[in-house]
Structures are given as C-alpha cells and as structure tokens.
Specification:
This protein is of the alpha+beta class. The protein is built from four helices and eight strands.
C-alpha cells in the first residue's frame, strides 16, 4: 500500500499537468512567442531596459558646461534644454572683414591672431577656411531695403572663418565671445590643411567674433 504522501504528490502532479495543459491551450499552436500578453510584456521589458540605459546622458563633445538649466535629481523630458557644452579645443574665429579689404583674402591664407585676453604677448596661428555667403546686413533680422530711395552707403563687412592651431589653444585656452585682432597674409604663405570634421558641424562648435 502506498503512503499518503505519495498519493498527495501524485495529486499535485496531476493538478499541475492540468494547469499546464490549460495554459498550452490558451497559448495556442504558436506558443508563448505568439501570445499577445507575452509579446506586450516582452516589449514593456525592452522599453524599461532602454530607459534604464538612457539614464546617463553623454555629450557629443568634450568641453566645459555653460548656461546650466537643470539641477541634480531633476526629471528631464525629451527635447528639453539642459545646458551648453563649450568645446574649448574646437574653436574658430569669425573675422568680420570690410568689403574694401576683402579682395585678396583666399582660403588657405596664413593668419596671425591676438586676443585681448592675453594681449600681444601671445600669438595664435591659423588659416582662412572660408568666406561667408553674404554680408552681415543681408542675414540680419531686419535687412536694409536699398531700393526705398532713402539709402546711405555704408561699408559692409563679410564674415571670414579662421581655423586656429589646436596646439595654440591647448597652451592658451580661449572662450567664446572674446575680442580678437587678426592679420591675414594676402600674398602667402599658404597653409594647405584639410578642414576638420568638427569645423563643418557649426552647431557643435563655438564662435569667437572679433
């Protein structure tokens, strides 16, 4: 005669088998992967894992933080402005050159620069990368209407972009918005350097306007 414990275990096995058969019938022939509840739970788990991995926001460039708009522990939303990252090693100078002095300026021309921050004791070296597509007045919020009949002639300025030697920036860091004095070599020497990739991404770089 079998002991009561054995009969109890057999009854539990039968109940679990019936429960497993009922679950298999509910899942159908596709199995767990085809069940809507299982698929929804799997997608919820994947979304939770994605949100967890995005808890750390990584900056696309290396620099210093400016204009901080959030505090530690604050919840942020997608598209919310957090702060500005200033990449000090990816800086260029925008020189606003008068149109009367622009004829001899060519891309590749060597440039020497001085900043009011350090004075004439520190000399930066660079080269002309390109000229702007128009004068500053053309792209102003309220451009002048020269055809109105009441027009006064003003000498216009055209932005000239100048790349600065990264070695000079490492030795003497600069900040956006500083005043610079530039001297462009109109008749050489010419510097043939490839334009850095970061220079083409103007949205991620800083500006120094003399």
């Amino acid at each position: 005669r079998r002991p009561p414990r054995w009969r109890r275990l057999q009854a539990e096995i039968g109940a679990e088998s019936a429960h497993s058969a009922a679950l298999s019938a509910r899942l159908g022939t596709a199995g767990p992967a085809g069940n809507p509840a299982v698929r929804a739970a799997t997608q919820a788990l994947a979304l939770a894992h994605l949100n967890w991995t995005r808890r750390i926001i990584r900056a696309p460039v290396t620099g210093i933080v400016a204009q901080q708009a959030v505090q530690p522990g604050q919840w942020v939303n997608a598209g919310q402005r957090l702060f500005t990252v200033v990449p000090l090693q990816q800086v260029w100078v925008t020189a606003n050159i008068k149109e009367t002095r622009l004829a001899g300026v060519r891309p590749g021309a060597a440039v020497t620069l001085h900043s009011n921050l350090y004075g004439n004791a520190v000399t930066y070296h660079g080269w002309v990368v390109g000229l702007g597509g128009g004068s500053g007045a053309v792209f102003a919020v309220l451009p002048p209407e020269n055809a109105s009949g009441n027009w006064i002639k003003f000498t216009q300025r055209v932005p000239v972009r100048i790349a600065v030697d990264p070695g000079d920036l490492i030795r003497h860091p600069l900040r956006p918005g500083l005043t610079m004095t530039v001297r462009i070599a109109l008749h050489g020497p010419w510097i043939r350097r490839p334009v850095p990739d970061w220079f083409l991404r103007s949205a991620a770089a800083s500006r120094l306007s003399p």
